[in-house]
Amino acid sequence: MKKIQYFLVLSLVVSFLGCSKDGIEESDNMENPMPPAARTAIADAAFEQALVDLGIDDVVDGSVLTDNVETVLSLDVSDSGITSLLGIADFALLENLRVADNEISTLNLTQNTLLKFIFAENNTLSDINVSNLAFLEKLAVTNNNLTQIDISDNSALQLIQIADNSLGAIDLSAIPSSLQLNTFAVENNPLTCIKVNEEILNDISSQWTKDEADTYALNCD
Predict the structure, then answer these.
(1) Burial per residue of 35-73, b for 16 or more beta-carbon CB atoms within 10 angstroms, e otherwise
(2) Contacts of 97 (CB under 8 A, 6+ apart)
(3) Which one, 6, 33, 86, 119, has least CB within 10 Å?
(4) pTM for the whole thing?
(5) CB atoms within 10 A of CB 96
(6) Sign of the dihedral defined by the CA atoms of residues 210, 197, 171, 76, in that order
(7) Pairing state of beta strands 106-108 and 127-129?
(8) Residue 30: its pLDDT value, please?
(9) CA-to-CA distance for 212 and 155, rounded, in angstroms?
């Protein structure tokens, strides 16, 4: 009889402890719910619609899951009616960006440090920031409204197409040689002097194009 009573008591204790543990876990889960997934704000509905069309987003609601954009390597949203690329900073692994034939007026790509290719022709760009892009190889911004551009951080450039803008000056002295920069087009800009380094000045590439009156010099002051 005592053995039966002992086993009954033991069973009740085990059952109580099990219930208590489940209750604690359930309480902990209620007190510490899973945080919501991080999202990246997309200010331009046309930009977000392009992301939806590419399967990167699912609905135009002003944001996209950050997990969906931070691993994108190549993004082509050309000719999409986009006026702003706010949110592009979260595309952390982006190497190839194509945004030609839109209505983008400013473009800050300083957070996209792995970018190699930027094609932004035929926009309304008055400002583009490509600082901190050590791997940038190709930059095409023909037919915009740029009055200046700083490419001093972009010593790996192989192509610069910047014709048909409003540049008053451009400095190529950070580029090691004209052999590396095999394509350079700067015609139809109001500048008259193109600053280069001595290596380039001694070996101007026949592939480069400029207005006839423009000159290459070590100092354009």
Answers:
(1) eeeebbebebebbbbbbeeeebbeeeeebbebebbeebe
(2) 75, 88, 109, 112, 115, 117, 118, 119, 120
(3) 33
(4) 0.84
(5) 16
(6) positive
(7) parallel
(8) 58
(9) 26
